[in-house]
Design brief:
By secondary structure, this protein is mainly α. It contains two helices and no strands.
């Protein structure tokens, strides 16, 4: 259930990436996390981290 595009060359906005993580976790609820769900959460975190790194580079 991807909630954001996963393109290496894209420059995601950190705020949007963070919101995607929040929505995903909230939609998941209190159920145990399966392997696919953890993988999607990790992918969303990677998108967020890439956005943060892009922001730092842009500020430098």
């Amino acid at each position: 259930m991807p909630t954001t595009p996963d393109r290496e060359d894209s420059r995601p906005d950190a705020e949007q990436a963070n919101e995607a993580i929040r929505r995903y976790v909230q939609a998941h609820g209190s159920r145990p996390w399966g392997e696919e769900e953890r993988a999607e959460l990790q992918r969303l975190r990677s998108v967020w981290l890439r956005a943060i790194q892009n922001n730092v580079r842009a500020a430098a």
